[in-house]
Amino acid sequence: xxxxxxxxxxxxxxxxxxxxxxxxxxxxxxxxxxxxxxxxxxxxxxxxxxxxxxxxxxxxxxxxxxxxxxxxxxxxxxxxxxxxxxxxxxxxxxxxxxxxxxxxxxxxxxxxxxxxxxxxxxxxxxxxxxxxxxxxxxxxxxxxxxxxxxxxxxxxxxxxxxxxxxxxxxxxxxxxxxxxxxxxxxxxxxxxxxxxxxxxxxxxxxxxxxxxxxxxxxxxxxxxxxxxxxxxxxxxxxxxxxxxxxxxxxxxxx
Length: 254
Description:
The strands form three sheets. The protein has a seven-stranded mixed beta sheet with strand order 5-4-3-6-7-11-10, with helices on both faces. It has a two-stranded antiparallel ribbon with strand order 1-2. By secondary structure, it is of the alpha/beta class. About 35% of the residues lie in helices and about 25% in strands.
């Protein structure tokens, strides 16, 4: 596949990281299945995607496909996409263990080799919408959606990004980065690339892509929430300020 420079970097990063990532994070993800964010707030509680039974669903950056495996059990027709072939190896093993079958696609979310209007739902949980350029991924998701279809994705908030010093493990209680001009996130010494936009730019990009905002769900962990991703200190930060959120937008009629 032909990749942008940042996509090629992210593919190499995830191929190298995948085994360790799934060993460390996979058990939490597998237990919760369909759950949002680092604190794994259940989809059954938030109801972001709605009733998925009988729906064609694309997961962008599926990793080991824990979400899609769960949605298949709920009656959805999922397709899992990931830029990392090693992540898809883990997805195949997870599918075999769960005795479910659905297509897996080795591709970038910036250029999905599937026809227009193929899906009722396109989503990811800290997946490809974080690691792909929004100027490419948002219009591509809109292209893939049927009229009235839903795009939903979680990520860290712009609020968190401006408070997160480069090379720090967690956000601080003071501003550290510029808000205006935000696009490529400074992740310090890491070799991967992440993206973020100010709130107004997200909304304008959605509008330009024929997407209308339905909701912005700001995720707040419970006081006793535990995570393999973040510490108790990060949990207390996220109890005070929005660390993560979910954009939920709808495809306008063509």
